[in-house]
Amino acid sequence: MKRLESLAEKAIREAIENGEFDDLPGKGEPIDLQENPFEDPDLLVVHRLLRNAGFAPAWIEERKDIDAGLEAAQTKLSRAWTLFVQGGNVASNPEWERSVQEFRETATELNQRIKIYNLKAPAAVFHRRLIDANKIIEMTSRPADKPPSS
Predict the structure, then answer these.
(1) 129 in a domain, yes or no?
(2) Which of 41, 52, 94, 118 is 20 to 30 A away from residue 100, measured at CA?
(3) Is residue 68 part of a domain?
(4) How crowded is the C-beta side of 110, counted as CA atoms within 13 Å?
(5) Is the pLDDT of residue 132 over 90?
């Protein structure tokens, strides 16, 4: 096997020295990584049109939607903390508790969607972790100078 590898390397080296690779199309240009070499050739044009129009596979769109929902819920929780608790407005603590309850409900709904999303994702590397509502609430309600509890 080593002899075969050395023959191939020798042939490539000689071809480079003879300038046989100098006139190849795309020489000196970056490699186009937009195209998937494993994509079905019959669907190549369709996928390119959808991609150029801003569409993605359903599981990718679902992930984006889940992430946007979580970000909106976290922003709402953070605003509630600023309005109802951080400013020292102790009389409004029931409002904070209501906001926390709403966040927990939203996190539960998003976790159900994440479980379904993880079933749709083509590989485990694309899976999304479930939302830990308690951890997010603790991080939101903790003063900036206080380290997280373990």
Answers:
(1) yes
(2) 118
(3) yes
(4) 24
(5) yes
Mean of pLDDT values over 8-19? 88
In this structure, is residue 74 part of a structural domain?
A: yes
29-70 confidence digits (pLDDT tens): 887 776 777 778 888 888 788 888 888 888 889 999 999 999
The conformation of residue 38, written as its DSSP 8-state character, comes to T
**Secondary structure class of 67 (helix, strand, coil):** helix
Question: What is the model's pLDDT at position 1?
Answer: 53
Give the span between the Cα atoms of 62 and 59, in whole angstroms: 5
pLDDT(82) > 90: no
Rounded CA-CA distance 53/64 in Å is 17
Residue 111 in domain:
yes
CA 134 to each of CA 37, 107, 139, 140, 143: distance values in angstroms, whole numbers, following the listed order = 44, 10, 9, 10, 16
Structure token pair of residue 29? 């240009």
> Please, which residues have CB within 8 angstroms of residue 61's CB and are 6 or more apart in sequence?
55
